[in-house]
Amino acid sequence: MRLNRRIRLFVVPVVAIAMMALLVGPVLAQYPAGAPPAGYPPGAPPAGYPPGAPPAGYPPGAPPAGYPAGAPPAGYPSSAPPPLPPPAQLDQMVSRIALYPDPLLGQVLAAATFPDQIQPAAGWADQHHYLTGAALATAIQGDHLNFDPSVQALLPFPSVLDMMAMDMNWTSQLGNAFLVSQQAVMDSVQRMRQNAQRYGYLRSNPQVVVGGGPYITINPVNPGYVVVPYYDPRVVFYAPRPGFFVGGAVNFGFGVNIGGFFSPWGWGANRWDWGAHRLFINNAPWGRTWGNRGAYVHPYAGVTRYNGPAAAEHHELIHRSEEERRAPRGGGVRREEEHERR
Questions:
Q1: First-to-last CA distance in the chain?
Q2: Inter-residue long-range contacts of 125-129, CB under 8 Å, 24+ positions, other chains counted
Q3: Is the pLDDT of residue 56 over 70?
Q4: Does residue 129 or residue 250 have the better pLDDT?
Q5: What pTM did the predictor assign?
Q6: Which of 326, 303, 319, 333 is nearest to 153 (CA)?
Q7: Which of 44, 50, 246, 286 measures 20 to 30 Å from 26, CA to CA?
């Protein structure tokens, strides 16, 4: 009797475990090793996951098809945004672009939310730097570039893209901060502009109009000519030392003729509503956030989006000379060059 009782005590749990494996095994088999993530029941994906996901073969940390390269960041799947830097650190982060004219500032912040595309875009802009106006706009569309239109909007500004590409840590942090809180970034820009104005560095001039009031605006005198100011953030946001000439600390001389050729990318139709903490590009509120970054598509009615390989190149690829790279520091209109089309 004791032997039979021991046999029953052993056999019953084994049979129960086997039956559970038969029931649960087919469900778990559809997930790769290490998945599904915590809290991800079959058929009920958490916020930010496409319906029915993860698909077969979805290893932890790899975004499924349909998510842009480089996003979500390392550690995906995760819906937790990165922590927003404290105000003092955020002020330092935005300082190098805080005095950009409002239209250019908006394009830079929007493009920074696609950090994985900045370096390839900077390379393309550098190689095609001699193209301007209609020729450049045609080349951008004709090359079937798969950059987001917000990144394409900066292609007429090789020096700006170069600045962003040379410090990808800064660019990524700036883009993340703008994804997490447009309001915090906008408030930081206003704090820095107020400092520059208070100490006499930021004033209206023949290239830009500086607006006062509760919010400081910087707009081009000629909307078709956008200047790229050059200044030292370690100087223009602090009280000048005695005898220092503040008038030459911010150089608004270098600019790019935009005209109407780049209106499909939002130029001429972007603005800030500083009071409401909203950025408008192409007359539509910029709504890309950390939570929707994998799915948000901003309206650019005149821009065709390409996801495949680039088209065959029809232009000479000529890198900027050292003199051209130094031009934004010295001011002056961007010089046009003539090269033959292939």
A1: 96
A2: 125/154, 125/155, 125/156, 125/157, 125/158, 125/161, 125/162, 126/158, 126/161, 126/162, 126/319, 126/320, 127/317, 127/318, 127/319, 128/155, 128/315, 128/317, 129/158, 129/318, 129/319, 129/320, 129/324
A3: no
A4: 250
A5: 0.71
A6: 303
A7: 50
Which pLDDT value is given to residue 341? 37
Across the chain, the runs of DSSP E, i.e. the strands, are 208-211, 217-220, 225-227, 255-257, 271-273, 278-281, 284-285
- Grouping H, G, I as helix, E, B as strand and the rest as coil, residue 253 is coil
Domain boundaries, the chain: 13-80, 87-330
The pLDDT tens digits for 69-113 are 444 444 444 578 999 999 999 999 999 999 999 999 999 999 999
Pairwise CA distance, residues 58 & 257, whole Å: 47
103 within 8 A of 160, measured Cβ to Cβ: no
Nearest to 302 by CA among 287, 315, 288, 284: 284
Q: Please tell me whether residue 323 adopts helix, strand or coil conformation.
A: helix
